[in-house]
Amino acid sequence: MFAPFPDPTWRLSESGYDPLRESSRETRFAISNGHLGVRGERAFTRGRLWVTPARTYVAGLFDRTGEAGGVPVLLPAADWLQVQVHVAGVRFVEEPADVPSHTMDLDMRRGLVLSDCIHGAGALRMRVRTLRLVSLSDREVGLQLIRMDVLEGEEAIALEASLEGVNHDLTPQSALPDLMTWRTRRSGIALAIAAAASLKIDGEASPPSQAGPLRSSWAWATRPGQVVEFERIVSVARSRGDGDAATTARSALRRARDRGAAGVAADHEASWSQRWACSAVEVDGDADAQRALRFAAYHLNSAANPADDRVSIGARALTGGDYGGHVFWDTEIFLLPFYCHTWPEAARALLMYRFHGLDAARAKAASLGWTGALYAWESAGDGEEATPPYAIAPDRHVLGILTGVREQHISADVAYGVWRYWSTTGDDEFLREAGAEILFETARFWAARAVLEPDGRRHVRGVIGPDEYHETIDDNAFTNVMGQWNIHAALQTADLLRRKWPRRWSELSGRLGLDEPELLRWRETADAIVTGYDPKTGLFEQFAGFFELEPIDLSRYVGRSVPMDVVLGRERTRRSQVIKQADVLALLALLPDTFPGDAGKRNFLYYEPRCGHGSSLSPPLHALVAARLGETDKALDYFRRTAAIDLSDAAAAIGGGVHIGALGGLWMTVIFGFAGVAFDDDEIILSPRLPAGWTRLAFSLLWQGRQIRCEIRQTAQRLTLALDSGSSTTVRIGVKRYPLHPGLPLEAAY
């Protein structure tokens, strides 16, 4: 159980200690199940003298604090992995630099973290191995195992297991021997942790010498050859509405104890096997790419919880505290494609979170003078706007943050996620009962937001696009075209409801006050929105006046270690054509059909050299677009840059958590870029463009109730498709079409 999976591309391994990179290791080695997340701090050689307790995060545990301008942030819970050892009455605290043998392994295949180390104190030497997991099959449950093999020495030793590091914004409510409860100070969310710990010495159970609320101690004498096994099972519950967190925690602990540690681990590994069967991507010929894709899928599978549609996935998932655990457009644009095609239940839950936040989005739009629904740029537990009002610049100046008011493309992004989920899964019930209302209310916002002016066109003024270096701009192409698309999608949905579900259309349109004159105004508005497209040049102008700004040759700044807005200063950056992240090219990634003829290539050639990639979300979109355009070498370079964000130690530490959006972008690049997967009505399209050195690519996809397996062999220039379940369909490869039937694999040249 303590041995990691043998294939090195299924695991991350790190040895020794580097204080500059310790926080990055804690991020990479995080474990999570969408409800409970634990950062990858060291499991045993710890003490309060040199390291903080392991950060544990619980999805939805938000509260307003005195920090971050008073917006809600995700609170860390108690460290349930805390173990302290005393040798001969003295607390055993080794300096990490003195433990060169210490190794940690993230076993991505089984979803657990292992460590192995030789420890010494005086005459005592022990080999200590640990295992930790948070169950993917029973999400309230966590498991910690420690095995100590005494190599030398006879000493009096004591071990204490406790909970430590409770956040000061959690108010204690009760403390019982097996259960503690807290409540957030302002939001009133209940948290409960129940635990059961045991110790065996040479296979015999040893009763604790002392016990208190979630705290137990054991004392014994060591001898060479002795084997000591510590086991702790915990359950962590958060209140859901009127739910009783304490009852939920006790019930989960009871289930886990009935299964035992071996049963908990077996159930967890079986759930991970199921996830990998749906989401594994195999690459032959490039071990680094294979490991990066497994790392991405590991964290993506770890981040979601289909059983809880009142929470979503923050920009760092449950692996760190950056951005206060807030949810951004990342979820719909960068994460949802993975879940739609590998885990539809998770995708549905994420979109239901947006549906539950619809009233908050309506209220935000109304507060700014518009109708419809304007979603929060940053949201926490209730869907209300959670963007901090200010930030502190590197020069210590206070900067106002405008994204919460002006980065409005979020409403179209949510709508895009709704439409993508429905078109991918065919989940008509979701569309009828939730998705349609989101589409209608976001379209209503854009119809109000795009103002008719004397030139006869509709303009959207005073916004921020994905390129956040340029604030308060007019007619951002991404914002306007996505808003236009949002309106058209809503109109298609209205036609669909009228034809297929007239009773639901009558009920919903009546409740929303949606009539034919308003739908007509939507069509007129969409047709009149300024897009910034110039048919003569084939270029979209990123926003009104962008082409007149100062061009900057970014090749002169290669090797810089800070973002371009720091290099140039904020004011010059605003007056320049330097772009923070994909903006027009984000539009090309999401709506490629909006670019006629060779316009996609023209826009890529124009905007790619102007992008400073000041966001982790930028390289994966550039990779995807480059791959689709046949720029495979450039796409692979962006793919590697994306993977390096979380896996390389060449740049700054990633102590705030993994960049989950970029990890979703890695998967998108491979599936929709290198494999060239696309869909058109009832047809799957493949246009493979594998990088040099990738001899084989294999993956599975869910689409419209079908389970499809694909294998692309570059050396033979052939691909194989198998329909494991679902109805027959058509496959287009190049200009040729082939039928694909269950049980009859298709093999074709490409």
Automatic annotation (TrEMBL):
Tell me which Pfam families the record gives: Glyco_hydro_65C, Glyco_hydro_65m, Glyco_hydro_65N
Q: Where is the signal peptide?
A: none
Q: Can you give the residue ranges of the Glycoside hydrolase family 65 central catalytic domain?
A: 294-668
Q: Which UniProt keywords apply?
A: Glycosyltransferase, Hydrolase, Transferase
Q: Where is the Glycoside hydrolase family 65 C-terminal domain?
A: 679-734
Classification via InterPro entries: 6-hairpin_glycosidase_sf, 6hp_glycosidase-like_sf, Gal_mutarotase_sf_dom, GH65_N, Glyco_hydro_65_C, Glyco_hydro_65_M, Glyco_hydro_65_N, Malt_Pase/Glycosyl_Hdrlase
Q: What GO biological process terms are annotated to this protein in UniProt?
A: carbohydrate metabolic process
Superkingdom in the source lineage? Bacteria
Q: Which residues bind substrate?
A: 329-330, 580-581
So where's the catalytic machinery, residue-wise?
Answer: 468 (proton donor)
* Residues in Glycoside hydrolase family 65 N-terminal domain copies: 14-240
Does S-adenosyl-L-methionine show up as a keyword for this record? Answer: no
Q: Which GO terms describe its molecular function?
A: carbohydrate binding; glycosyltransferase activity; hydrolase activity, hydrolyzing O-glycosyl compounds
Asked if Hydrolase is a keyword of the record, the answer is: yes
Q: Which PANTHER family match?
A: GLYCOSYL HYDROLASE-RELATED, PROTEIN-GLUCOSYLGALACTOSYLHYDROXYLYSINE GLUCOSIDASE
Similarity comment: family membership: Belongs to the glycosyl hydrolase 65 family.
Name the record gives this protein: Glycoside hydrolase family 65 protein
Organism of origin is Brevundimonas naejangsanensis
